[in-house]
Design brief:
This protein is an alpha/beta fold. The protein contains 24 helices and 15 strands.
Length: about 625
């Protein structure tokens, strides 16, 4: 009887009736339960129809009987990797890790299982464990994608030089990995390693000149020179396209008395965003708006994270939800306006907008550029900006429709520290030291701008440069460059330690001139400097990121501190440095103007913002 059932099952299998074949094989198996090969055949058929959980069950039983059978081990590992990948796609990273870990228990030297296991650990922020898995995978089989992901993990734990080396190894195997190349250059910028950087920038510029087939991280380009708005748009469009998403039809939510806003961010924690958005959220008119926060970042245990949770009407941690689940949740929560405060930065969930979970989708504040489009349909409907960061003549170079706010697009908290009396001696400087400073990330310091700053040190007596501490490699690279290229002694470069927000604000008062970066301007740090009355010189270019500090200076009424060329920047800095009375006059002007300008008036800002939102809702 068993043989007849097997023959009938094979006939159904031949005819393509896989489920029918499985049913007959199961009947035969029940008659001959010790027939391991029937179990294997049933497992194979379940795998063919992608029922990997069922297949894995049969292969587990087969493995129990045939411990050393390589085919069974391979089949079971294949199914477990498929199961793990499904969990991974759905952002169920712990379940994914469990599946890959089980696969490794049968075959600890499977490079694919180790790679997948590393990915699932990476997305749980278990970077050290992920690194170990990637390295074991690479010992078995060198693979450019594994080297790339190893580089990503090393970057997250600030092992920058090792990360660069890993990217370089990936590129040796496959020089066409555009994304890896961009990340490598991005990291080189973060440690101010500028050997051959100009040639790298030229290559990247060419890659962005036309629609792109490869994968380029849009965020990485903001700090790179000579990238135009159109280049940024090409890259954003490519990023959206390579994700494989499709933009859905617009949502048809029911109209309600209040407008429900979903603020989406990975930065509702101890992060510069806190000092921008907190009081906007507090000042929202609850008679007109309902506020819901959707958080995709790590739980840093900070007071700021708890504070964000208390500000809103509802808070959702979406870290382990896939885009479809988040979209469904937003629909359930009757979201009218989704505002993305993160964009294409770390832990981004911006592609949720493609599913159209709200009536309107807005790009604002966290990402200084366009989010791109797919098939000429923008990922985001609107972008909040101002007429300085995006002049109306440039609005066509962005995918979104630009909604112009009345003043500077960037809000600020009003509850900033009261200024205390501080002296240069308090910070280890001499009273006659002329302090140039720039407190942006090292990533923003380009070779061109640092060279300009070194020329200022050459021309201004008793001058020093005060930068924010980053990493020892970066500091050593800057000191070496200053000495070898300009003869500037390392003692004239100082690096400010990370301190409390209050202390950080106070120390700006001893700065004579704050030097802005270009093409990636100071954002939050520009407001910090101006709050303390610190004169700031900023170069404005074409792109959004290169016009932010100019927008802030315009809002506070210090137009004379905005320049349009490197030459003008240098001339302005030397002119101010030679006139101490002029610097004091500018400091007094800033302190007076900050009281009357709208830059630190979040209530006024929120009122304008709400009017724009109400207008968009019709």
């Amino acid at each position: 009887m068993t043989n007849k059932l097997i023959a009938a099952a094979k006939a159904k299998e031949k005819d393509g009736d896989i489920l029918g074949a499985i049913d007959l094989y199961k009947v035969a198996w029940r008659e001959d339960s010790k027939n391991i090969f029937l179990q294997i055949e049933i497992g194979n058929l379940y795998a063919i129809i992608e029922e990997y959980e069922e297949a894995a069950g049969f292969f587990r039983r087969s493995h129990y009987a045939l411990k050393d059978n390589l085919q069974v081990i391979g089949a079971l590992g294949f199914c477990l990797n498929k199961i793990g990948n499904t969990y991974f796609i759905n952002r169920e990273f712990k379940m994914a890790a469990n599946a890959f870990e089980e696969a490794l228990s049968y075959d600890k030297n499977n490079s694919s299982s180790l790679f997948n296991y590393g990915n699932s650990l990476f997305h749980q922020n278990k970077y050290e464990e992920a690194i170990k898995a990637y390295r074991l995978s690479l010992k078995i089989k060198p693979n450019p994608t594994t080297y790339n992901n190893l580089g990503n993990a090393l970057q997250r734990i600030s092992k920058t030089e090792e990360a660069i080396s890993s990217y370089e190894k990936a590129l040796l195997i496959n020089p066409d990995l555009t994304h890896t190349f961009i990340q490598m250059v991005h990291l080189k910028q973060s440690i101010c390693s500028w050997s051959g950087i100009d040639e790298m920038f030229s290559k990247i510029k060419k890659l962005t000149e036309k629609p792109i087939n490869g994968k380029i991280s849009p965020f990485a380009l903001f700090s790179m020179p000579n990238i135009s708005n159109n280049n940024h748009l090409n890259v954003a469009n490519s990023w959206v396209k390579q994700s494989g998403i499709k933009i859905s039809k617009d949502s048809k939510q029911k109209k309600s008395d209040k407008i429900t806003i979903a603020y989406l961010s990975s930065d509702f924690r101890l992060h510069p965003l806190y000092y921008l958005i907190k009081e906007v959220l507090i000042n929202h008119d609850r008679d007109k708006f309902i506020l819901k926060l959707f958080y995709s970042g790590p739980d840093d245990g900070s007071e700021e994270l708890d504070e964000f949770k208390g500000i809103c009407d509802a808070y959702f941690n979406i870290t382990e939800m896939n885009d479809e689940k988040v979209s469904g949740l937003m629909i359930e929560e009757s979201i009218d306006i989704m505002v993305d405060l993160t964009g294409f930065t770390q832990n981004s969930r911006s592609l949720i907008a493609a599913l159209r979970p709200a009536k309107l989708h807005i790009n604002w504040l966290g990402y200084p550029g366009t989010m791109g489009s797919l098939d000429k349909k923008p990922l985001y409907d609107f972008m909040f900006a101002d007429e300085y960061v995006i002049p109306k003549s440039k609005s066509s170079e962005y995918a979104e429709e630009i909604i112009y706010l009345e003043g500077c697009y960037q809000p600020n908290i009003s509850s900033r520290p009261l200024l205390k009396t501080v002296k240069k001696l308090d910070y280890g400087f001499k009273e006659n030291d002329f302090i140039f400073a720039s407190f942006g990330q090292s990533l923003k310091i380009t070779k061109e701008m640092f060279s300009l700053w070194m020329r200022l040190l050459q021309k201004v007596p008793d001058s020093i440069l005060w930068l924010l501490t980053s990493n020892k490699t970066c500091e050593n690279n800057l000191r070496t460059f200053a000495s070898s290229e300009f003869g500037i002694q390392s003692e004239r470069l100082f690096f400010a330690k990370k301190v409390s927000f209050d202390d950080h604000i106070q120390r700006h008062q001893i700065i004579d001139i704050f030097l802005d970066t270009f093409p990636y301007n100071a954002h939050t740090s520009a407001s910090d400097a101006l709050w303390a009355g610190c004169p700031m010189i900023s170069l404005s270019g074409e792109t959004f990121a290169s016009r932010v500090a100019g927008s802030i200076l315009t809002e506070i009424g210090c137009y004379e501190l905005i320049v349009s060329s490197i030459e003008e920047y240098e001339k302005k800095a030397i002119e101010l440095a030679s006139k101490p009375d002029k610097i004091m006059s500018v400091k007094r002007k800033i302190l007076d103007l900050k009281k009357t300008s709208n830059l630190f008036k979040p209530k006024k800002f929120t009122f304008d913002l709400e009017n724009k939102m109400i207008g968009l809702m019709g």
